[in-house]
Amino acid sequence: MVYNKIEIPEEGEKIAVVNEEGDELDVPENPIIPILHGDGIGTDVGPAAQTVLKAGAQATGRDVSWMRIYAGETAREKYGENLPQETVEAIREHRVAIKGPLTTPVGAGFRSLNVALRKRLDTYANVRPTYHLDGVPSPVKSPGEMDMITFRENTEDVYAGIEWEAGTDGVQQVKEFVEEEMGFDDIIHPGAVGIGVKPITEFGSKRLIRRAIDYALEHGRDSVTLVHKGNIMKFTEGQFRDWGYEVAEEEYGSEVITEDTLWEERDGEQPDNAVVVNDRIADNMLQQVLTRTGNYDVIATTNLNGDYLSDACGAQIGGLGIAPGANFGDGLCLAEPVHGSAPKYAGQDKVNPTAMILSGVLMFEYMGWMDAAQLVRNAVEETIISGQVTYDLERQLKDAEKLATSEYAREIVTNIEQLA
Ligand code: NAD
User: Fold this and answer.
1) Which of 225, 336, 352, 373 could form a disulfide with 321 if both were Cys (CB 3.0 to 4.6 A apart)?
2) Annotated catalytic residue: which of 229, 296, 391, 408?
3) Based on the number of CB atoms within 10 Å of its own CB, is 85 exposed (0-12), middle (13-18) or buried (19 or more)?
């Protein structure tokens, strides 16, 4: 592919796909990896993550050739548009990429670039691990009990973007259809109304749930919990749950067992190496993660539930400065922190780059660089234990030293070199 405004690094090779299904990668020793710093604090955390991840690669005998790509403000400056086609193409072509946050105006203005990117790349699983790093302050008594990973469906639900603004012809047409043709004639209050549609498909649900179960099996996890609000939204959220059980019962044989079968046939005793699939209602789940944290392992859930739940879990392990994530499609990974662009802190060399660095750790794991991933994670942990942290953690810790974003990144690099 010839790019117009993206500079291709002089060294490095592209990651290749080696099977027909397009989901098995051949990762060279020095891959070219696209990086999008993002808006707001993306200008601080992006370069910090870049430095730390490169050091992690080099300390394990490899390298990374970063290729800057653009969306949001930097794309408006360079291309005069928010999400240039070549940015999407570069991610697709290189298979593995990392991005910082992108600003989305609330209410009016353009639609979320993050949602658009996920749609255009069909990265259907938003994966957010929540584990506690030693030394990170937390609002709960035993943060170490949390070791969960949330698979959030990323392409449908009320996030799909099918909605009509109050006062438009479109909303009027949909309202008339719902009331006159479908017979829901006494539900929508009179006056102005905005309407959205919540599609939950069998295809979208099953591929997400399969991915969560595969992950649980590959990583020796005990359970996959389907989180839904199916008691109220029976034909969308309830169906998500039912399709989940269908996948579990029909596609995996004895390695996957439902919670009902576990009790009916085995008196609750879990067979070795098997994954138990159960389900919880979303509101209850927000309590469960606080009160019975250790009971949960892998979560598979719809888009909106997953957004709420993973942010709440993120708070328990130290907040937005820490919480990593990645979007996965078939043979595609776009890593990104959970947090947004926090505009009031932008460009101050102040915020915590850990979330973006740990998103890079997820990306390394996907590339099969387990040693580099573990090394970076250990070096981050070591740095935090030593009390050298950014402002968000420093203010919650006794005797800690407040570092700038860039100083903290350098400290992690020193620890990578010492631990390697
Ligand atoms: P935000 O995550 O940007 O910030 C909320 C608060 O969290 C900040 O004020 C700050 O106190 C704290 N915080 C966030 N990241 C931090 C870090 N790395 N270190 C220390 N503290 C940190 O959420 P918001 O204010 O709701 O959103 C701001 C913008 O970001 C909006 O335009 C929103 O649409 C966008 N956003 C983008 C993404 C994404 O790109 N994936 C995700 C969420 C929000």
Assistant:
1) 352
2) 229
3) exposed
